[in-house]
Amino acid sequence: MNRKDNSVKEIIERNNELRKKLTDENREYYEQLLIYIRTAGLFYDDHEVESLLMQILQDIISAQENNQSAEEFFGKNQQLAADELIHNLGKSSKKETFKLTVLVFGISSFFEVLSALTAPDKGINILILIINGLLSFLVVEIVFFILHKSIYTKIIKGKVAAFLSIWLLVSLIIGLFVLIDLFTPHLITIHLSSLLGIFIISILLIAAAFFIFNCDKQERRIWWPFLPPIFILCFIGITLRIPLTKNWMSSGNGKIAAVVLVIFGYILFLVLSYFGSKGKKE
C-alpha cells in the first residue's frame, strides 16, 4: 500500500471519528452529501474526494459550534452545492484508473474461474472472462449512478416499488451473466487435469483467505462475507476431482447436495453482509 492510499485511509478514519460530534440533523445532512460525492463517479481522485469531505465536515462542525445548522451554512439546495464541489474535483491518474480496472476485472475473473472449476468438464472459457469483466465494470458504474442519483431524487416512489425494481435489476444482471455463460462460443477454452484443477482451486482459496485476513478492519467488513461462498465453491470443485468422492458428487444426490451448499453459502453471504453493514460507521 503506497503513501497516498495510507493518507486516504487516515482521512476516512478521522472523518468517521469527527462525524460523531455532529448533531443528528447535521449528521443526516452531511452523510447524504458524503454518499452523493463519493458515488459521483469511479474515476475521481480519492485523495481529493476525501480531503474535500473532511473540509466540509470541519466547516459544518465550526458552524455547529456557532449555533448554525449545516443547511443554514451550505444553503437549502444541497444538491446544487454538491454538484459545484464535484465539478472542481480532479480525475484519477492513469495509474489509479488502471489499478481500479484491473481490480474489477480481477474480481470478476476470480469468481468465473472458481465457478468453472466446480464443473471439471466445462473448462475455463477465456472469452467469457473478458466479457464478464466488461459487464462487471458496467454493473459497478450503474450501481454508482443509481446510488448517486437516489440521494436527492426519489427515482422510484414507494417501498414495494423500490424493492421490486431492485429485485428486477439484480435478476436482470444475474440473467445476463447466465446468458453469457450459456451462449459464448468456446473459441479459447482451457481444460485442466484433476490434479492441476485441485492445485489451482487450493491456490485461489489460500489467496482469497490471505487477502481478506490481511485487509484492515474496515475493508475486512466488506470482503469477509465472500469467504463462505468461496470456501463452498472450492470444496465442491475439489470433491468433484477426488477419486473417492467424484462419482457420488456427480450423482443426483451429489448434485442436490452441491446446490444446497451453494444456496447456504449465498445465505451466509447475505447475513454476514447485513451485520457487517450494521456495524459499519461510515
Give a written overview of the molecule:
With 282 residues, this protein is mostly helical. It folds into three domains: 3-87, no CATH class; 94-191, no CATH class; 194-282. Helix content is 76%, strand content 1%. The chain has a two-stranded antiparallel ribbon. The longest helix is centred in the last third of the chain and has 27 residues, at 252-278. The protein is elongated and about 75 Å long. The two termini are 21 Å apart. 16% of the residues are buried. The mean pLDDT is 83.
* Helix amount: over 70%
CA radius of gyration: 23 Å
Major β-sheet strand ordering: 1-2
Please tell me the overall pLDDT: 83
Number of strands: 2
What attributes characterize this protein structure?
13 helices, 76% helix, 1% strand, 282 residues, mainly alpha, single chain, two-stranded antiparallel ribbon
Give me a quick take on this structure.
Helices cover 76% and strands 1% of the residues. By secondary structure, it is mainly α.
List the helices and strands and how they pair.
Layout: H1 3-18, H2 24-38, H3 46-65, H4 70-74, H5 78-87, H6 94-117, E1 124-125, H7 126-150, H8 159-183, E2 189-190, H9 194-213, H10 217-223, H11 227-239, H12 243-250, H13 252-278
Antiparallel strand pairs: 1-2
Helix pairs in contact: 1-3, 2-3, 2-5, 6-7, 6-11, 7-8, 9-11, 11-13, 12-13
